[in-house]
Amino acid sequence: MPSSNWFEKYRFSIIIILSIVIFAGLIYLYLDNKKSKEINYEKEITALNAKITDLENNLNNNKKEPQVAGETTETTDKTEEDIQTTNEETDEQNKININDATQEELETLSGIGATKAADIIKYREENNGFKSIDEITNVKGIGEATFAKIKNQITVE
Length: 157
Prior knowledge:
Elements: H1 2-60, H2 80-94, E1 96-97, H3 103-107, H4 114-126, H5 144-150, E2 154-155
Parallel strand pairs: 1-2
């Protein structure tokens, strides 16, 4: 029975060596998995950077107009003057006529709450309406600062 004596004699050393080999294998697997994740993160970062670049290009390209699905775009040669005229016309249409605006409409103006809207209506009724938009500064609580905020939002007709 010399062979069993050999095993008994080196059993502790064999267990230590096997444990070291298993531990080394686990460390290798852990580091390899970590390296794979880092590579995946690098790929994701590259993809996100490409998306950011695309978004920046879309934002910087102001001449393209949004396109509805199935619709073709036509190129137009609008000058800045044409665009400004169009914007002014649109702005005029969106302005609130302070001579016939309701309380709710007046409250949509910057810095105008329920109290100031009621004061505007009261002033309008007492003075047969506004002759110009800057006359709104005669209303209690509306000074130059408030007028500066709302002057592009109001009109008198």
